[in-house]
């Protein structure tokens, strides 16, 4: 997030796109509701009618995979009606003319044909966002999990630049991260092309610094993303894999293919709390511990580095992740002498400019938002104040592109996937909760009443859902939350593994799979 969670509550306008916030980020969803009670205007863009729509001034129910057309049309309206912040654009941005030329054809009427959103709603949303004194955009994987995921995000950034809603309080471009430490994992270099703090592996100075600190020669060639790793395993270019706290057997797209790729591995290690579906494939399972059984730091969605203290002793032979990795490192011949999590954090701060001023003592109870370059620096709650890290903020001229799969005669429905309030991800933890299982313990595919009638379906009927990659069976929930031609499923339930259906088509830049748009056929089972 460029801004903080608390600021959401005092924004004058909030634009939520591709985020079922009250179910996937309930604390932030509560902040949005409080903002509305204080008088904030709320825009919601989503293929489904989510809970936040009940609080929204305008609901943009767009077809899956049409985000760019919608966002470009909003930009078109802002420019045509003279609502752009010309002073901000002139002083702090570049490439504006390219954006202006691109969005010229994206009239609300033109976008309506692509998105299905009425032109008057697009106009109203653009006015609310642009006319507000401060406006915040919140988005999640409903924006990124597309073949156009990177361009979707660039289109969001265009709106913020166009209206000057960046680098000031109660505004910003605010992606909500999917798990409690996704931000921290990325900060620590759990990406194929960077070291800690997003220092590129291709940067000779950065590479030399880490080579000296770690005592080994480091490659300047970026590695593979998760989706690329499984393809490499299929081709036997990768022969061993070490999976920590992830369950790709259920969570990754086209999971039949993922399982086949895993079977080609010569050696698989899984480090996790439970014997997950993926762990059952492993040659070695390393028992890890939960957040309550270890100490260290987490980094949340607003870049706040927070200290976590151990509350419980680990059971049996389970160990903290750093201890397991440390022991493996020693057996591989590295002279690692880390005695505790704080030793590791001290090294992080020494090698990572954005963490340089942070230490355990300074973190205290509330934590610190990075970047924090020196020990007397207070941290940075708001990014891009006065100046962007690259200098000028760059507008991106991006065009609408159709999803990789579209409905046809054989597969007439579009499947979009997501989560529900009661379960998380593949249910590794939440499905072990008796209370949560009692509330919901099976998949209920959502289908529009019109489509259900055409298929002669009744509530809770069993259906077979098929795609070009596989098929699953699910009970149905008949609801107008989804529009005609669209069905919705989660991936929480191994008995109805929705990712057997989804495709591995991905964004060419970020390599994120298009989990939000899959052509399927629905039949009564």
CATH overall fold name of the largest domain:
Rossmann fold
Please describe the biggest sheet, giving its number of strands, its sense, and whether it closes into a barrel.
Answer: 6 strands, mixed, barrel
Instruction: Name the helicity range.
Output: 25-40%
Cα radius of gyration in angstroms = 24 Å
Describe what you observe in this structure.
With 525 residues, the chain is α/β, with parallel strands linked by helices. It has 3 domains: 172 residues, Dimethylsulfoxide Reductase, domain 2 (3-Layer(aba) Sandwich); 188 residues, Rossmann fold (3-Layer(aba) Sandwich), CATH 3.40.50.740; 112 residues, Beta Barrel (Barwin-like endoglucanases). 32% of the residues lie in helices and 17% in strands. A 6-stranded mixed barrel has the order 14-18-15-17-16-19. Strands 3-2-1-5-6 form a 5-stranded parallel beta sheet, sandwiched between helices. Strands 7-8-9 form a 3-stranded parallel beta sheet, with no helix packed on it. Helix 4 runs antiparallel to helix 7, helix 7 packs across helix 8 and helix 13 packs across helix 15. The chain is globular.
């Amino acid at each position: 997030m460029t801004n903080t969670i608390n600021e959401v509550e005092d924004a004058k306008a909030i634009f939520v796109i591709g985020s079922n916030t009250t179910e996937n980020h309930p604390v932030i969803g509560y902040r949005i509701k409080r903002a509305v009670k204080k008088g904030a205007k709320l825009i919601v863009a989503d293929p489904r009618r989510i809970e936040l729509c009940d609080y929204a001034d305008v609901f943009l129910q767009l077809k899956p995979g049409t985000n760019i057309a919608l966002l470009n049309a909003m930009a078109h309206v802002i420019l045509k009606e003279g609502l752009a912040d010309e002073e901000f654009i002139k002083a702090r941005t570049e490439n504006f003319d390219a954006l202006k030329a691109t969005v010229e054809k994206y009239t609300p009427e033109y976008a309506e044909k692509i998105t299905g959103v009425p032109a008057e709603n697009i106009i109203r949303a653009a006015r609310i966002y642009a006319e507000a004194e401060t406006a915040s955009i919140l988005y999640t994987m409903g924006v990124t999990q597309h073949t156009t995921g990177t361009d979707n995000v660039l289109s969001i950034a265009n709106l913020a630049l166009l209206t000057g809603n960046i680098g000031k309080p109660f505004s910003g471009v605010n992606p909500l991260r999917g798990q409690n430490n996704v931000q921290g994992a990325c900060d620590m270099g759990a990406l194929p092309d960077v070291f800690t703090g997003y220092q590129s592996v291709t940067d000779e100075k950065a590479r030399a610094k880490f080579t000296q600190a770690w005592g080994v020669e480091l490659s300047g060639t970026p590695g593979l993303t998760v989706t690329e790793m499984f393809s490499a395993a299929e081709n036997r270019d990768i022969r061993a894999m070490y999976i920590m706290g992830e369950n790709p057997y259920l969570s990754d797209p086209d999971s039949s293919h993922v399982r086949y790729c895993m079977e080609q591995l010569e050696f698989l290690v899984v480090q996790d709390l439970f014997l997950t579906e993926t762990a059952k494939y492993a040659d070695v399972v390393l028992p890890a511990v939960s957040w309550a059984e270890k100490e260290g730091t987490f980094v949340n969605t607003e870049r706040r580095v927070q200290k976590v203290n151990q509350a419980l002793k680990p059971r049996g032979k389970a160990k903290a992740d750093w201890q397991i990795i440390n022991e493996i490192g020693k057996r591989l011949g590295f002279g690692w002498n880390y005695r505790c999590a704080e030793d590791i954090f001290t090294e992080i701060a020494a090698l990572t400019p954005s963490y340089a001023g942070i230490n355990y003592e300074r973190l205290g109870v509330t934590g610190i938002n990075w970047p924090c370059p020196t020990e007397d620096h207070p941290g940075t709650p708001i990014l891009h104040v006065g100046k962007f890290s690259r200098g000028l903020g760059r507008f991106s001229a991006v065009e609408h592109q159709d999803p990789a799969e579209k409905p046809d005669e054989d597969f007439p429905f579009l499947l979009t996937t997501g989560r529900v309030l009661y379960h998380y991800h593949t249910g590794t933890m939440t499905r072990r909760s008796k209370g949560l299982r009692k509330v919901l313990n099976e998949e209920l595919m959502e289908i529009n009443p019109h489509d259900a009638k055409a298929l002669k379906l009744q509530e809770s009927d069993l259906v077979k859902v098929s795609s070009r990659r596989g098929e699953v069976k699910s009970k149905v929930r008949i609801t107008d939350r989804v529009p005609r031609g669209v069905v919705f499923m989660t991936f929480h339930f191994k008995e109805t593994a929705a990712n057997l259906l989804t495709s591995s088509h991905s964004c060419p830049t970020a390599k994120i799979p298009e989990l939000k748009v899959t052509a399927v056929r629905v039949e009564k089972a």
